[in-house]
Fold this protein.
Amino acid sequence: MHKRAGMGMLRKIKVFYLNVKSLLVGMKVTFKNMFAPRVTLQYPQEKQPMKENFRGMVDLIPEDCVICYQCIRICPTAALDLGHKQIIVDEKKKNEITKFTFNTELCCFCGLCEEICPTEAIFLNKMYEVAAFRHEDLLKIDLMDAQKYKHLDKNYIFKKKE
Amino acid sequence: MDLQELTKILNERFPGVLGEENKTAVVIKKESLLEVARFLREDDCAFENLHCVTAVDRRDKMELVYHLYSFKLKFMLTLKIYLASDDLAVETLSGIWKSANWLEREVYDLFGIKFLNHPDMRRILNPEEWTDYPLRKDFDRPDFIRLPQTEGLKAGG
Amino acid sequence: MPMTNFDIKNIDPEKEDNLSFEELIVNMGPQHPSTHGVLYLELTLDGEVVLDCRPHIGYLHRSCEKIAENRTYVQFIPFTDRLDYLASMNNNLGYVLTVEKLLNLQVNERAQYIRVIIAELNRVASHLISAGTLAQDLGAYATPLFYCFRDREKIVELFDTLCGSRLTYNYMRIGGVKNDLPPGADTSIKSFIKYEREKLKEYDDLLTYNAIFLSRTKKVGILKKEVAINYSITGPNLRASGVPWDLRKEEPYLVYDRFNFDVPVGEAGDAWDRFKVRLEEIEQSFRIIEQALGGIPEGNPTVKINKVYKPAAGEVYLRTENPKGELGFYIVSDGTTKPYRNKIRSPSFSNLAVLPELVRGVNISDAVCVLGSLDIVMGEIDR
Amino acid sequence: MKTLILQGLAVLGFVFFSAMFLVWWERKVSALIQNRVGPMVVGWHGTLQTVADSVKLLLKENIVPSGVDKLIWWLAPFFVVVPPVMAFVTLPFGKSMIVRDLNVGVLYVASMTAICVLGIFMAGWGSSNKYSLLGGMRAAAQIISYEIPLLLSSVLVVMETGTLSLQGIVEAQAHGWFILKPHLAIAFLIYLIAATAEVNRCPFDIPEAESELGAGYHTEYTGMKFAMFFVGEYTSFFIVAAMATTLFLGGWQGPFLPSFVWFLIKTYGIIFVLMWVRWTLPRVRMDQMMSFAWKVLTPISLANLLIGGWFMVNA
């Protein structure tokens, strides 16, 4: 009886010791991490370069577009709007885009339009900071305009995808 | 175990409950659902798991689909019943499988099929005061964003 | 009830100055730090003990199933990203596998291997977040969460180079994948595995065997085997209850039957077991990835998406083992380019349904712990 | 009178400076542990971040939720801030840097830190918010339970020195800190654990348990009132750390450096350890915490008191 009580006490002390040890082991982990390299960036000052095929805002090279309407068909959210008309230049029939707009509000940045485009005219650029002061600024972005995202990002320059 | 065997067992045990022939599912009559379900759960096949309950709106009728799973047989049974559009009510299975509780509530919410004797027959995803059933084929709203009609639209190659 | 030594008859209910007993109804959520999204729990409390819990869901309901009926098969892939947004790759995979089965489409070997590697990596990422958020719910202020995010970041970076997105990948394609693995992916995945194995030891020190963590999670929210099966619980939660059931093992899809891995199983089915099973699954995923990287064949895994798929009329129900449980897609086709019905059987939905059963009679702190250990994602529950 | 006012102002100035410094320091320590850098923008390494934050809190709208018990709700923040500030009066910062060396110093400080519970409970009750109420009730139970081991372990020091005056206690440690004696070392550990619970810090932060109760008793407070809870919390934190220094670590005693530097080094050392603990360990549950106080800490401190007394009589 006495022996068992003694064993119980010993066991309790052992459990207590193990408990305290487990806490100290955890403290050791956090202590080690105090000297580990930092993993964060000071965001507005430091920026991570975007990856090669990053999917940002939809962009267009107007002269490459052949008006095949593939992107309009594939877009799952109806974010793109395209219209065209026939004109005659030098007695040759030619198609001209009347409107090609992009609705940021609906876009889900899936990149399907970029993938399906036969001439790689439509693509997703590397812009990711897309805050605007007015709701309307994001609704109808004219993709034919080379300055299309100037109102969202003053450093925006139209650039073809590498 | 495959579907033929199971159909045979069910035919022997419950003559006359099987509805029309179906290659992928066992179709039974609505009235005998509870009986058959209890049999499937407690018999040797041991369909312990009611994996999924859903419905398909076939316009003229409503198709209620139960996916039962048996760990023992490693077999997924698709059990179907058809409901007439004017009588969308069926006995609940939540007394047999607890998982039926929420799954049936979801079907009620999206299709408007009432489950009789269900412990908590409320809408689950949509607001309770709403009266529409969104997954029915005739459900439509003017504020849906529709994909553009692009049939025949093509200019270049 | 706390009225045992008290003569109830002497209480006059008319008099206001008498002691009165009242149940406290607390609305936990929809905005609450530890409900993992917009979940609203209506808790009935007696002091701090939960008497009843009624989950209200649907705050994130977008009716994905209705959307699916109006989209072609390819167009719906981006929407699957948004179901369980912590494991988009696995959702993509489940959907494209279902459509491929509907179409009877064969996928080349390399694509299958890539899919396995990517799906397992995403499983690791999802389990890391689950571990971090559980620790956060238990009050280990942010530190484990930050560590988990730090490690997950490496996977996300890899996915970023792979498909150009960090959360909604839209990577799997019907019949293949979007891009081939980038050059150097092999070494970077291997070095990540080496790094993460060391970090897993740290997690064990910091959380798994920590005395306070143990006392908070052991014997809390015990989910019995029978209850788990009856509620159709799947995934790590089921395995923690002692059912060695893993679809990758039992009904292998893709090329999972070629790999050698174990199915970690818990004993008691309590919160700690659920946590531990997830951590062990990370290790098993690493084993699968290593074997897959070793045996990956040559070939072209990519497919063009401009094909229109027109499956024959019919229906398919297919499940895949997602990090949260078994994700099932039930697609009914009527022979057109759009599915007639697309039902998403989401694992978190069934896993959450068991919550009232688990939290009845426990402390409010434990209720939070149970919810955290179930590892739910609201995007998937509300769909 | 003039010196009294000056001393009062010095104390107040120090209180707010110390609270601001501690908030910054806490954020830096947490950042260190979590592989981050913490606040970096305002001032050198974000040193002025807390100033910016307090200005923001000052300018914020003071929202009074409908249904609050107005008087109690308004008074609560003052009850949280004022007592710890008053406790500063008798803290020996240096050899002669003490406002009033009360001959009941230990009791005075203990009672002042204990009054905080009143403010916390008032906040919990007055907010008429269920989360706040739960937090307030938890705080009341917790602080009162942990008061006992806290005092029992300080009693040991009082027995050792025979005085309740804090300055007297520090002077008694001129030839060796009390922590070097085994029974007092145990008392120090008990004191530290109880003090952590006393100031509601992790792993005993259940009154404001963020993941359970939103923010506990100060859920409904905004703007300056919220800031006052913050100041009160960090001031109490400083007080318990300073008391640990005074009672066990020799107070301002130390070679070479001026006395108040030694005092601050030791105090901030203890604070650092407590922060390190906070950012490592998970939170305990209410019932576990109470049983830990009554079944573990109190018996151990009583036994320790007995052993300590026996030592003193026989040595």
